[in-house]
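Mods, move this if it's the wrong board.
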Amino acid sequence: MRSVRARAALGATVVVALALIGAGLSVLLVLRANLTDQAGLQAEVVAREVAGQLALDVPYDRLETRDEEDHPVQVTDEDGRVVAVSKDLRAISGTGTDRVTPDPSPTPGQSGDESGGGSGSDDDASDDGSDGDADDDRGTPGRGEVDSDEPDFTNGTATVDGETADYRFASVRATTSAGVTLTVHAGAPLAAEQEAVGTVRGAMLVGLPLLLLVVAGVTWLVTRRALRPVEGIRREMAAITASEDLSRRVPEPGSRDEVARLARTTNETLTALEASVERQRRFVADASHELRSPIASLRTQLEVGAAHPELLDVPGAVADTVRLQALAADLLLLARLDAGERPGRTALDLGALVREEVSQRGGDRIPVTVSVPDSGEFEVAGSRGQLARVIGNLLDNAQRHARSAVTVSVRTAERGDVVVAVTDDGAGVPPRERERIFERFVRLDDARTRDDGGAGLGLAIARDVAARHGGRLTVGDAQEGGARFELRLPGAD
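Not the wrong board. Structure tokens:
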């Protein structure tokens, strides 16, 4: 599925279906268990009632049971023989024996010998003249006992009055006064449990698909509504890509959710991309313009020299070539910096690097004063060539604007930073122009001519290199009244 809405709807439906199936099965199991326990309790009550009568030696044919159609009863002795059943019981299963015809056996209060010699006993009693007392004794029931342990429960079927149904049977043991142990099997119908479980199951089978359809539909609609701004962002981005118009922006919804943050981030990215492309266009235009001048001048001189060798300005041609070479080197370095080239991590002494750069500048218009303490620790990590280029660019800028003095100093600052300061006694930099001078191909209005003032790339390169080394380059006022450029780099660990 390629649609997020379809995947979300399907996922939500599957999760809800699994949850509902699990919950439904749990409900059915709990409902069935509760109703089965209730039927078992009813069967136990009936079984104990019959067992109580047997313990009181009530004859089998005089046992009383409640609602025999709903509570079939079967009584067995220790040998498993059926001694009594409830009225209209025609078949039974689940009680240990399926017989429903009672076997001849003594009454609960008599043993087998007493039953067989009942007539002889009456004659002997008459001869002794104690017949009335014997009749009184037979009319008073004996007392046995009912087992108080938890009854045994089983499930089975019974046919009562021609109708077969499922029952929950409870088995209770009773002992007569003559010591005869009998087991009473009494049943309670499971029709209510089956009907309730069937009703709930049917409701679930009907309601579950409908509920899942509702969940899928609601999830589809909610997801569609939530993703509608995303589709708007996609369409606008496609239009921007097709038109290449980076000034356009994607619509931002009024909500504060993830989609709104995505739209804002996308617009911020477009803004940064537009600014980057605009800088690139300006850079290409300015570079073309800067390259055009020395190339045109060099071509003119060479063409004049080819036509009139005596008029060839060799020093001018060499100067234009040197200027063209320096400009090409600056452009190449900026291209590498824009490409994200990481500087090396070589440890170097910034104080020694400053002394070395100043010592190689023998042709400067104004002598450079160096202030580097001999006992200082000025070690930094970075590219020696790029940092030397920064110091050289700062000295070149100071030489172009200084009147009579240029000073370079090195010191340590808080947190172990190393600071290189280059000052001059020139006119300084106006506060409103202090950030603009670090832009590429920018020269202030009072700067020198293009031939003396350079292409306007030195300070831009210096700041980019400082940033790549984790430092920064700033400009302020010098005590002498000119400009003070400070290069701050983190010390080596």
